[in-house]
Amino acid sequence: MRETETIWMNGEFVDWADAKVHVGVHGLHYGSGVFEGIRCYETPKGPSVFRLREHLTRLENSARLLHMELPYSGDELRAATHELVGRNGLPECYIRPFAFYGYGELGVHTAGNPVEVVIMSWPWGNYLGDENAQSGIRAKISSWKRVGANTIPHVAKATGIYLNSMLAVHEAQRAGYDEAILLTDEGYVADGSGENIFVVKDGKITTPPLSTSILPGITRETVIQIAQDLGYVVEEANLIRSDLYLADEVFMTGTAAEVTPVRSVDDHDVGVGPVTLELQREYLDTVRGQSERWSHWLDLVELGDGVPQGARAEA
Ligand code: PPE
Fold first, then answer.
1. Ligand 1 center to 51 CA (angstroms)
2. Whose CA is nearest to atom 1 of ligand 1?
3. Domain interval for residue 154
4. Is the CB of residue 121 less than 8 Å from the CB of residue 93?
5. Hey, which of 58, 196, 221, 259 would you mutate to test ligand 1's pocket, going by the most ligand atoms within 8 Å of its Cβ?
6. Which segments in the chain show pLDDT lower than 70?
7. Dihedral sign, CA of 253, 256, 258, 263?
8. Residue 84 domain flag
């Protein structure tokens, strides 16, 4: 992780090195936290956080699903995010808001523990590797099943749930693959360890529905809208592993992974295809403010006086 200047921690900016917690925090022992992954991109109008409000709404929903009361409103977290990006001075960065039960009582029940909230930002390239974003990744179906909807609410981006992803990606990489694809207990395709999945077959695009225990990805929803706008038919439907093997194209989406082609699944070559590359190009144009149609998704970072940073730099 590349360190930056400052971290927003419980309402204050602290130096990167000082953003510490005690080893007794509840979240560390039981994975009782919720988080977000967001990206800020450089656009012609200045640094712009992509779909910040949607990410903060998902953070609030994740907290609600855990009966966790966030001590800050979405507007406060949005302002803090803007200020953090401005202070760290990085026009392109990854942003990680994170809320967890802090120090107070140990024991699985969370009573007696304050909710702590932090926001970090740092530079982060493509999750699956910048080269893989062009040439595609090799994926493997995991022997670990995606946690079911009645095990942990998968709609929540909760920290503890990521043990499921960690086990899957470790297994895949130990076997020489780049990324894991998890199936549900029933055998339907769910998501990658940190990405949603799409299949292209005969010009039609299909992605698993929310009922397959996926995280409701904001990039997933973004790519569905962009694809429909380009005239593609996009369907949310159950997929089985053979659909991946026989696909014309497979790709993954995520804030960190952006749009990444999958070139093989379990050694069945799929190849990197034109639909994936077109959607990847359109997605990157959109997040970097090159597409008027979707400019409402860009949340321009403003400095304290309300002047967008880019405008100030030009002045
Ligand atoms: N599924 C999972 C399991 C997941 O973790 C992510 C995000 C997605 C789908 C895509 O969601 P969205 O980013 O809203 O399009 N994974 C984050 C990286 C996880 C990590 O910290 O590592 C991310 O992309 O930020």
1. 14
2. 195
3. 132-272
4. yes
5. 196
6. 303-315
7. negative
8. yes
Contacts of 178 (CB under 8 A, 6+ apart): 128, 129, 132, 137, 138, 139, 172
- When computed from its CA atoms, the radius of gyration of the chain, rounded to whole angstroms, is 20
Cβ neighbours around 46 below 10 Å, total: 21
pLDDT of 305: 52
Whether residue 86 is contained in a domain is answered as yes
Residue 124 corresponds to which tokens in the numbers above?
């982060």
d(C-alpha 11, C-alpha 272), whole Å: 45
Residues 230 and 159 in one domain: yes
CB 260 within 8 A of CB 196: no
In a domain, 303, yes or no: yes
For 304, the 3-state DSSP assignment is coil
Same domain, yes or no, for 166 and 200?
yes
Q: What is the pLDDT of residue 303?
A: 52
* CA nearest neighbour of 170 among 182, 160, 158, 159: 182
CA-proximal residue: ligand 1, atom 3 (nearest):
194
Which amino acid is residue 170, in one-letter code?
A: H
Strands (E), 55-209: 93-101, 115-122, 137-141, 179-183, 189-192, 196-201, 204-207
What lies within 8 Å, CB to CB, of 94 at 6+ separation is 37, 38, 39, 40, 121, 122, 123, 124, 255, 256
197 within a domain of the structure (yes/no) = yes
Q: Is 157 a catalytic residue?
A: yes
Distance 36 CA to ligand 1 centre (A): 8
Q: In ligand 1, which atom is closest to the CA atom of 55?
A: 14
Q: What is the pLDDT of residue 308?
A: 52
Q: Distance from the CA of 193 to the center of ligand 1, in angstroms?
A: 8
For the chain, what is the domain count?
A: 2
pLDDT at 301: 93
How far apart CA 31 and CA 8 sit, in angstroms, is: 21
3-state helix, strand, coil in the chain (%, to 5): 30, 30, 40
Joined together, the tokens standing for residue 314 give 């030009």
